[in-house]
Design brief:
This protein is mainly α and 267 residues long. Helix content is 64%, strand content 4%. It folds into two domains: 183 residues, Rhomboid-like fold (Up-down Bundle), CATH 1.20.1540; 61 residues, no CATH class. Helix 5 packs across helix 8. The mean pLDDT is 87.
Amino acid sequence: MSEFRPSRFEILPTVIKNLLIINGLVFLAQYTLGASLDHKIEDLFALHYWGSDLFKPHQLITHLFMHGSPEHLFMNMFTLWMFGSTLENLWGPKRFLIFYVVCGLGAALCHLGVLTYENISLNRDVQAFLSSPSATNFVLLQHKYDLTFGQYELSYPTTPEQMEAAKVFLQQYVSEYRDTATLGASGAVFGILFAFGYLFPNNLLYLYFLFPIKAKYFIGFLIILELISGIQNSAGDNVAHFAHLGGVLFSYLLLKTWNRKNRQHFY
C-alpha cells in the first residue's frame, strides 16, 4: 500500500505535540539562560565526542532536544510535524516514540563513529607534525583540515617563535575539535522522513505548495544530497551529515525488524 487514507486523523497527535513543546522550552532555556551560564547548558546536554571530558552518556538523548538557531529549530519541528503526524496516527504514540528515540540514538552513534575517525586522524597528523615540525608540514595541515578558515588563520611559520606558536595553536585546535558540541533532532527527523517515503512512496508532496513530486523521489533526493555532502566535507560545513544518514539507516533497520515478512502488512 502506497497511499495513506486514515478514517480519523489527528492534526497534532500526542507525542508530536509534546516533542514540539519540549523542544521549544529547551530552546527558550538555551537562549535565556545560556549566556548567564556561559554555555554550560550546551556543555552538559549537547552531544560530545566520547573522547572528550565533556561527554556524558545522557547526551545521546538530550542533544535531540537542543538546537543551534531559531531556523534550525523551526525546520526540524516543522518536518517532524509534517511527516511524523502521519506515522504517529498510523502506529500510535508508543511505537512512534520508540521509533523516534531509536532513530535519534542511531544517528548519535553513527556521528560518534565519524567523530572517532576524524579525531584519531587529526591527533595522528598533529603528533607527526610535533615530532618533525616544519613550515611545509604546517601548511599541509592547514589545507587538509581547513585551518585557514575563520579563527584558525595563521601565517606561514618560519622563525622559531612562529613555529612554537604553530605548535601551541595545533594543540589548542585538537582540544577544541575534541570538545565540539553537536545538537539537534535532525537525525531522528531524517529517520521519520525515510519512514514516510518507505511506507508511502507515491504520496504527493507539493514543493513551494505548487509543484507535485512523489515522496520517494523528494526524500530520496535529500538522502543522496546528505551522502554527497558528507563525503565532500566542504570547508565551513558544520552540518552532521552522517548523523542524518545514521537516522536513515536505523529507520530502515527498525522498519525491517517490525515487518520481517511482508511490507504490505506493516500496519
